[in-house]
Amino acid sequence: MIIRPAELGDLNACFTIDHSYQTDYVWQMEEREEEGHVTVTFRAVRLPRTMRVDYPRDRDYLLDDWRRGECFLVADQDGEVRGYLDMTVQAWHATGWINNLAVGKRHRRQGIGGALLKAAIEWAREQGLRQLMLETPTKNYPAICFYQKHRFVFCGFNDRYYTNQDIALFFAQSLR
Hints:
Helix content is 22%, strand content 47%. The protein has four helices and nine strands. The chain starts with a strand and ends with a strand.
């Protein structure tokens, strides 16, 4: 397998990758307000049954990110795109923002996501970035576990981030 910069011809394959996922857990948020302070706690909660979550993607966003010419990588196996990672740079604070990391369903849990992430980290270091950031919904427990395994740490949340009212969790990894 080769990790390489995406070409225009790869975008259709990236778009057709099934981004959906299944989960048996979610990160549940509990918020308490008391005199002078607010306490927010997240904890993994097992669901009564497996939940399938669709992950809609807008073709134009992928094309726009690719046109920026920053970090858009594909995992290529014998000419087949098996996964991709799309990262844009926020130069004002030297941060690489991972917008998308997806691996085709048939190819998950084979190290492809980790290889894409490793290549993105190398690219970010070459650019002199100080950290990587990403967001994922509380429902995406498989992604939360993946990012934590790869040394991303929870650094915040936004309960008004998504239009569908899901809570966004933010994770970061220092590169220095």
